[in-house]
Amino acid sequence: MMVLEEVANRCKFPREALYDLQRLTWYVPEEGGVLRVGILPITVKGWGKMRRIEVKRAGTVVERDRSLAFVEAQRFVGHVKASFACRVVEANDLLSSEPHASQADPYGRGWIARVEPVEGDGPATLMGFEEVREELERTIRERGIVCFREVPEVTVAALGVECSMALMVLKDQIEQVPVGAVIQLVAEGDESSEMEVMRWSRITGHEVVEFFREGRIVHVLVRRKG
Asked: How many CA atoms lie within 13 A of 51 on its CB side?
C-alpha cells in the first residue's frame, strides 16, 4: 500500500513515487523493474474533468516524450507523454469506461499503465518526493487547487462575493446541469460559511459532497439532486 502525504489543500502524493512535473506524471517502482504510471491530480484545475483516455496497448514501445495515452478533458485535448523510452506491460482498461478515475483516484483505480524501461537512464531522469514537494506546494497554492474526492463537472468562481450571496448564484447554475452532476463553488467566507452552506443544502435539497476553507477562500462541492 502506498503511503500518501498531504502537501497542501487536500492534495496527497505517494512518498515512494518518482515524479516528472513537466509532464504532470508520477511513477511508482514495482517488482522486476516495472513502473506504474499515472497523471497528477493537480491536472483537474487546468484540464477540467477527464472525459476520455486511450492508453497504448500492451507490448507497444513508446519513445521518450511520445504518447503513452491520448486524453480528452473539458479544457484540454492532448497526450500523456513518456518520461523515458519504455514498453507498455499493461494498460488500465478501467479508464475506457471511467476516465475520471485518473484524477479522482490516481494512485488506486486510476493509474494509466504499467511500463518497463527499454534503454537509457530510464527512471533515473525522474525526481523523488522530497525533491518536488516544495514546487508542488507552490503550484497548488498559487493556482488555488483543491484535490477533492470527486471531480466537478463545473466550477463556479465567485471570488469577491460573500458565501451567502454566492450560494444564490450557485442555485441558478446548478439548475443548468444534469441531476447527479457535481459543481464546485469558490467564494469568500469565514467561520460561519459551513453552517450557511449546510442550511442552503437543507433548503434546496442538493447534496454537499465536500467543504473546504483556507483563510477567506471557501471551496464547496455540491451534487445536484432531482
From this structure: 10
Residue-range definition of the domain harbouring residue 182: 154-223
Mean pLDDT of the chain: 92
φ, ψ for residue 19, nearest 5 deg: -125, 145
Residues 20 and 129 both lie in one domain: yes
CATH of the domain at 68: 2.40.50.100
Kindly report whether the global pTM for this prediction surpasses the value 0.90. Answer: no
Is 148 inside any structural domain?
A: no
Q: Report strand pairing: 182-188 vs 154-162.
A: parallel
Asked if residue 149 belongs to a domain, the reply is no
How far apart are the C-alpha atoms of 112 and 25, rounded to whole Å? 10
* Residue 56 DSSP symbol: P
Region 82-102: what's the mean pLDDT?
96
Rounded-to-integer distance, Cα 183 and Cα 5, Å: 26
Read off the pLDDT of residues 49-70 as tens digits, 9 standing for 90 and up.
999 999 999 999 999 999 999 9
15 and 75 in a single domain? The answer is yes
Residue 164 lies inside a defined structural domain of this protein = yes
Q: Are 70 and 42 in contact (CB under 8 A)?
A: no
Does residue 158 surpass a pLDDT of 90? no
Beta bridge partners of 78: 71
Q: Are residues 96 and 31 in the same domain?
A: yes
Instruction: Look at the block and give the residue holding cell 488500465.
Output: 92
Banded model confidence at residue 110, pLDDT cuts 50, 70, 90: very high
* Residues 89, 193 within the same domain: no
